[in-house]
Design goal:
It comes from Dyella flagellata. By secondary structure, this protein is mainly β. The chain contains two helices and ten strands, in the order ααββββββββββ.
Length: about 200
C-alpha cells in the first residue's frame, strides 16, 4: 500500500499509492526474534487502549525521499471503534488545514495464526484498500512494516505507535530507500483523548 494514492505516510492527500507484494512473508522474515516474541504473545486486545475519540495533530512531509523539508500541518478528530470484541478495529480520521480537508481510515485486523496485526489504510479520495503494514506490540510499543513502491522505486515502510499515557498517543511513519540503512520520517501524529463530559 505504498503511500501512493493512499493515506498512510501522510496520505500525501491523494498523491501517493501504496503497492506491494508478499507483505506478510516479508514482515515475518525481517526479524526472527520479533516473530518469536509475537508467537508468545496473544495480542488480539493490544489496541484496546485506543478505543474512543481523540483530538489529533498531524505533521506531513509533502514530498518524501526527495530532500524536501516542506511540511504541512493538520488538525482533526480521530475516532477508534471496536470490531469483533477487539480482534479488529476501525480508525477514522477527519483532518484539515486552511487549504485541505481529508477523510482517512485504517482497518486493523488481528491474525490469530501469526499473532500479528495487519494495518490497512485508505483515503476517501482513492476508495481502495491495499496490502497492510504488519507487526505488533512489544512492551506497549507497536511497530509495523512492509515493502512498498514510491514513484516506481522500492522502499521500506515503518509505522510506529507509542502510547505515552492513557490519554496521549504518538505515531510516526518513515520510509527507507536503502533497505533500512537510513530512514526519513514523513508522518507524525499526536492524539490527545477527548474526555467524556460529565452528565447532569
Amino acid at each position: 500500500m505504498a503511500l501512493v494514492n493512499k493515506f498512510r505516510a501522510g496520505c500525501l492527500l491523494g498523491s501517493l499509492i501504496f503497492a506491494a507484494g508478499s507483505v506478510m512473508v516479508w514482515a515475518q522474515s525481517t526479524s526472527r526474534a520479533a516473530a518469536a516474541t509475537a508467537a508468545e504473545h496473544d495480542g488480539q486486545h493490544d489496541f484496546n487502549f485506543e478505543f474512543g475519540t481523540w483530538k489529533t495533530h498531524v505533521s506531513l512531509l509533502r514530498h518524501p525521499l526527495t530532500g524536501s523539508k516542506d511540511w504541512a500541518e493538520f488538525d482533526g478528530i480521530t475516532v477508534v471503534h471496536k470490531v469483533w470484541n477487539g480482534q479488529a478495529n476501525l480508525l477514522e480520521l477527519d483532518m484539515h488545514n486552511a487549504s485541505s480537508h481529508a477523510h482517512l481510515a485504517s482497518f486493523r485486523l488481528y491474525n490469530p495464526a501469526t499473532r500479528q496485526w495487519g494495518l490497512y489504510f485508505v483515503n476517501s479520495r482513492v476508495g481502495t484498500i491495499g496490502v497492510p503494514t504488519v507487526g505488533g506490540f512489544t512492551n506497549g510499543r507497536g511497530e509495523f512494516s512492509d515493502k512498498e513502491t514510491l514513484d516506481g522505486k522500492p522502499i521500506l515502510v515503518r509505522f510506529v505507535i507509542t502510547p505515552r499515557s492513557a490519554d496521549a498517543i504518538h505515531f510516526e511513519q518513515a520510509f527507507s530507500a536503502d533497505n533500512g540503512k537510513t530512514w526519513e520520517t514523513n508522518w507524525i501524529a499526536d492524539d490527545t483523548r477527548v474526555k467524556d463530559r460529565p452528565s447532569g
